[in-house]
Fold these 2 entries.
Entry 1:
Amino acid sequence: MFIDRARIFVQSGKGGDGMSSFRHEKFVPKGGPNGGDGGQGGNVILVADRNVNTLVDFRYRRLFKAKPGGKGQGSNKFGRDADDLLIPVPVGTVVRDEESNTLLADLSHDGQQAIVAKGGRGGRGNYHFRTSANRAPTFAERGEPGEERWLRLELKVLADVGLLGYPSVGKSSILRKVSAAEPEVAAYHFTTLNPILGVVDLPDQRSFVMADIPGLIDGAAEGVGLGHDFLRHIERTKILIHVLDVSGSEGRDPIEDYEKINGELAKYSEKLSRKQQVIAANKIDLLSDDTNLKRLQQYMDERGRDVFPICAMSGEGLPELMEYVWKLLETYVEEPDETDEEVIYKPEEKPDFEIHRDDDGAFVITGPRIERLVAMTNFDDDMSLRRFQRIWRYMELDKMLQKEGIQEGDTVRIYSMEFEYRK
Ligand SMILES: Nc1nc2c(ncn2[C@@H]2O[C@H](COP(=O)(O)OP(=O)(O)OP(=O)(O)O)[C@@H](O)[C@H]2O)c(=O)[nH]1
Ligand SMILES: [Mg+2]
C-alpha cells in the first residue's frame, strides 16, 4: 500500500541559561558582571528531499527533539548554539499543525525547508542587566523554552500521469498492464481504495510515474466517497488519462460520464479542470458494433480531445496510448504555482495571558508570554524575583486576578510555579 500520511511530534531545543558571574582580578576588589548569554536552542526543520519517496519511515520514528542551547559562562563566554534538527521528507509533503489544523508548509521543491518548531532564545547573562543604578546585577535570564507540537504530514502523490474515471471503468487494469504495480482488479465498484503508483517503462529507458486512484462518483467535488482525497491526489499530475467504459457494459453512457466527471473537476478546482486529458475508450472487446465508439470519437473531435480505443484486459491499444502520453509529457510546461515557494509559518499569536480556576480553587494563569517569563526567571535570586515582580505589575496581572475575585492566601499557578497570593 502507498502510505501518504503520518503524525509526528516535534520539539525544539530550549535556549541555554544565561550566566551570572563577576570578574575576579587581582587587585580589582569589585569586578564587574561578566556572565555570558545562553546559546540558541535547536530548531526542528523539515527538508524536502527527492531521495525520500514515502512517509513510511515515520511509522517507526515519531518523536523528534532538537538539542538545547549551551549555558552561558563566566568571562562573557556565550553558550553554544545547538544544531538544528533536520528531518528529510518527500518532495510534495504538506505539513499541518494537528491541534489547529493550520497549514504550516507545502514543501514542493527539492531542498525546500520549513521551521516547524523554533528553538528557544538563549537567556541573557547578568552582563546585560547593568544599569547606572545597579552596576552589579546578580541575576541572569534562563533560556527560553522550546516549542512543541504534533504535526500531520500528508504526501500528495507526485505522479506524472493520473488515471481518472468512474468506478469499474478499468483504471487499475490499465496500470497492471503497463507497469509492475499490481492493483487489485475486480468486477465491483471501489475495488481500489487507496492511490497506487506504478512506473511505466518505455523502450530506450524512458519512464514515467502513473497514479491509479479510486473511482470518482457524483458529488466527489463536495467530498462524497472521499472525493476530496482522491482529487487532491491528481491535482499535481501533469496529464490525466480519462478512462471511459465505451462498451456501456454497466449501462453507462461514456459521453455522459465524461461530462459529469469534468463537472466535478471544475467544481473542485479550476486548475484541475484545465489539465490536459487524453481519452482512453476502454473495453472495446465488448463492443458489438462501433456506433458508440464513433459517437464518442466525434464528440471528442469537436472538443479537440484525442481518443484511444483500448482493451485493458488484452493490452490492445495501450502501447500507442503510452507513447502518446510520453510525447505530451515531453512538451509539458509547468503552470506557475503561486503557492509553491511560500512556506507558511507564523509563531502563534495569542493573548498575553488567560486566567482560569482549577478544580482545587487555584487561579491558573496561562499564556505564552507569562509562561516564558516564569520559565526564564531564576526565583532563587532576589534580583531576578524583583524583575519578575516589575513585569508582573506591568502586565497588570494583579488587576485581572482581583477582577476574578482572588483573595489573600489563594493559590496562583503559572507554568511550573505555584505561590500564595499576597497584596
Ligand atoms: N471485457 C473487459 N473487461 C475489462 C476491461 N478492463 C477492465 N475490465 C473489467 O472491469 C472490471 C473493473 O476493472 P478495474 O480495473 O478494477 O476498474 P477500476 O476502474 O480500477 O475500478 P475501481 O477501482 O473500482 O474504481 C474488472 O472486472 C475488469 O476485469 C476490458 O478492456 N475488457
Ligand atoms: Mg481500481
Entry 2:
Amino acid sequence: MFETTGLHIASWVIGIILFFAAYALHKQGNAKGSKITHMILRLFYVFIIGTGAALFIFHSSMDAALYGVKFLLGILVVGFMEMVLVRTKKGKPTQVLWILLVLALLGTIYLGFRLPIGYNFFG
Ligand code: HEM
C-alpha cells in the first residue's frame, strides 16, 4: 500500500485543492471557512510527507541522489504552501513565495513522474 504511489498522489492532489480552497475562502472574507480548510490542509501535509517518506524508504536505493532531491523539493512545496497562506492572512507580500511555490511544484511533479516508481511520463 505504501510501496506504490497511489496514496501519495491522492494526498498531494487533495492537498493542493485544499490549499487553493483555503486561499479563495480567505480572499472572499470567509475567515472561519479558511481557517478550518487550512487545518485540514495541515493534516494532509502529514499524509503527503508520510507517504513520500515511505516511498523514499522503500525505493531511494535505486537512485539516492535524485530521490534525495525529490524529498527536499516535496518538503519545500509544503513549506511554500504554508508560508503563502500564513503571509496572505497577515496581509504581507507573497509574490516571491508564489513564484517559488510554482517552481518547486513543477520541479517536484516533473521529478516524481521521471523517477522509476509509478507513472513515468517523462521517460
Ligand atoms: C505537494 C508536494 C508533493 C508533490 C506535488 C509530489 C509529487 C509526486 C509525484 C508526481 C510523484 C510521482 C508518482 C508516480 O510516478 O506515480 C511522486 C513520487 C514520490 N514522491 Fe512526491 N510529491 C510531493 C511531496 C513529497 C514529499 C514531501 C516527499 C518526501 C518526504 C516525496 C517523496 C516522493 C517519493 C520518494 C516518490 C517516488 C518517486 C518515484 O516515482 O520513483 N514527495 N511525488
